[in-house]
Design goal:
alpha+beta, Alpha-Beta Plaits, SH3 type barrels, 2 domains, five-stranded antiparallel β-sheet, 7 helices, 14 strands
């Protein structure tokens, strides 16, 4: 399917996300992955599967494929036993593992990053949302470029401050003022601070010391 058809189809349903292994990426590049997945699921040849690809489709642009939801979770999880699959994105509800369903708008955002890979420099402090990869839906602020292809994000929660390294093409700029500003500790305070001297140990009064010597132990 062409990219435009992918986006039109993505908006009409929910999707299961399958992370690919290196073997799966090779199958995606050759154009044989969709047929293989349909055969393993036991569905018709027209069952909707989206394999994001870049340019002519000679290589997978994302290490994920999207499979239309609606089947039992066990049928999707059975794909994890195949060589082309790394894992199915899921969540744990008590002791029950269920597939993680992604909405059509999220799939459209991922496909958009494939069609329009970001090459512009994201400014420090820019709020971004991860639209693919293991940190899907996480929002944070750009701290700096970790490498030519990766960004260093700062993600803050109520109790934790985390630093994440993500691929530039896996994020999308968002306008979210609820994301806390960057926290940068002032290291000068630690450099100039001197350790406080230990408090002196008070001497034991002579009267108490004598009473200690007279104590009997049984």
């Amino acid at each position: 399917m062409e990219a435009g058809d992918n986006r039109a189809q993505a908006g009409r349903s929910t999707w299961v996300v399958l992370e690919l292994s290196p073997e799966g990426e090779d199958l995606a590049g050759s154009g044989r992955l969709s047929a293989q997945i349909r055969g393993d699921l036991g569905v018709s040849k027209t069952y909707p599967i989206i394999v994001p690809s870049q340019g002519s489709g000679s290589a997978s642009a994302l290490s994920y494929v999207f499979i239309r939801g609606g089947l039992s979770s066990s049928r999707y999880f059975a794909l994890e036993r195949r060589g082309y699959a790394e894992r199915v994105l899921s969540r744990q509800v008590g002791s029950l593992r269920t597939v993680y369903l992604v909405g059509g708008k999220e799939v459209e955002a991922m496909l958009h990053t494939v069609d329009h890979p970001r090459s512009t420099r994201l400014p420090r402090g820019q709020v971004v949302e991860v639209v693919s990869g293991p940190y899907l839906r996480v929002r944070g602020r750009v701290m700096s470029a970790f490498s030519s292809r990766e960004l260093l994000l700062q993600v803050r929660t109520r109790t934790l401050l985390r630093l994440l390294v993500v691929n530039r093409t896996n994020v999308s700029m968002v306008d979210d003022r609820t994301v806390p500003p960057l926290f940068v500790p002032d290291l000068r305070r630690f450099k100039n601070s001197k350790p406080k001297p230990a408090a002196p140990v008070p001497p034991v009064p002579a009267a108490k010391y004598e009473s200690y010597k007279q104590m009997s132990f049984f």
